[in-house]
Write the structure tokens for this entry.
Amino acid sequence: GALTFREIFLNISPSTGASVKKAVGEVIAHELAHQWFGDLVTMNWWDDLWLNESFATFMSYKAMNKLEPDYDMFADFLVSETAGALEGDSLVNSHPIEVEVKHPDDISQIFDEISYGKGGSILRMINAFVTDEVFSKGLHLYLENFKYKNAGGSDLWEFIAKVSDRPVRKVMESFIQNIGYPIVEIMEDNGTLKLNQYRFLLNGKKQNVQWKIPLTARYTGGTRSVLFDSESMEMDSSGFIKLNDSETGFYRVLYSSPLYENIIKNISILDNKDIFGLLNDMHAFLVSGKITFVEYLTMIEKFMELNDPFIIREISNELFSLYLIDPKNSLVLGTNMEYLADKLKILGEKQKKENINISLTRGILANRYAILNRGYAEELAKFGDSVSDVDPDMRLAVLTSYAIVHNDANKMINILSGFSQDEDRVKVIQAMTMLTGDDNFAIIEKAISDREIKAQDSLIYYMLAASNPGAREYIYANLENIIEKIQAVLAGSGYSSKVIETVVPFIGLNHMDEIGEKLEKINIREISRGVKKGMEYLNIYSDLVKRLKN
């Protein structure tokens, strides 16, 4: 029952930023949840790893949502858990939640967005499907029956099904044993809604797979639930607004134009989670080629007028990710600049006792605007020599600006050594990813070798530097050495695989013909999944760059 943490997740101080404040609560709650899901009841074998991690993930947000309602933790859940899982699970090279484990090296690679994010999202979906009261009763029975014993996923469904009249087992096995997830296409025809489902893939291909989907449909008079367990079905369209109420379901929805226009008319009665789902789905449809960039911008135009901090962050996340994939695209750059400038003006200066999410959003947007706008970076860089006096949520933006304007690794190392708090040191390392030039790269590598930058924090540097257009060639040229360094310290952790998966889609964009050969030289078993996923993302991004030009 011993719990260990890195200090950043235990130490709250006056210089703790909003995102870390939230993370401290969520991480501690996650690890405490393992006292029940992991310790009291232990999985039969590693193929049920998700049973531990999914529950700890879901229950940590549930607990924090109760303790700190102002944090809007289930909005964070959608960003941190559901969105990442929806993206990762739309790859051909995904894996089912319940995955067969044959070798110790396979274990570390399944501690990923599927075991945590998808599993947690499926639990949220089934919780909504059977109601809180029924879900709680079923869990209680399960824990009582298996305490100090081993259990499998099917045991859990059996106990929730015992107290529910819903087809729990069918739904759960459908989502746990199948790789991927469904897209539901919906259109209206003469007063009838016509739906069909198939597997959604980011590469734009179509697979005819059917899930047993617990659909929640929002109508003007409330919500209705129905099980969608065939290739197609029909529903009454009278008063219909949208599917997947509050985004509790693990699926995407593509609406016909008239239905989408009706959603826009009813935008005022949708909550921020509904709007997040619409936005996140549209971005996925853009990446997969279902819609063009111009269509995407047209469809999210009304949402860009909204000032909920959660919605602002999601739109900025999507636009900025497109910039990182195609930094030379003037339309992408211009849209980012205009949106960031407008929302930073609306958010204004920090107010006393403002909501934590407003402060968090301001800092994220300021950091991105500094990367895109040299003039703004020069304004913020002036505060770099006294960064300890800067609001914690604005420190990363100031440090990033300082790094861009001065482009001097020695100056950044000096700032790093002046901080004792892990959180501030991580922000300095994040800012250092914006440095360019061989001299700077050499200084950073020395800092990593000398442990001025912790081994675990070097991962942050490498992964973020790969998204910086000015550092990609360096990461590409030194990829073998970087993986060797990580393996020397963190072998068996799965981190090397995650680094490969994250950096390859960016560093490979200018090396499409030769990156495969480079990866062959370092393709040890422990990074095999990362190589496959990284190459798949690379091909998807390469196709997207071509389409963004049209």
Summary: The chain has three domains: 7-177, 182-277, 407-550. The chain has a mean pLDDT of 94.
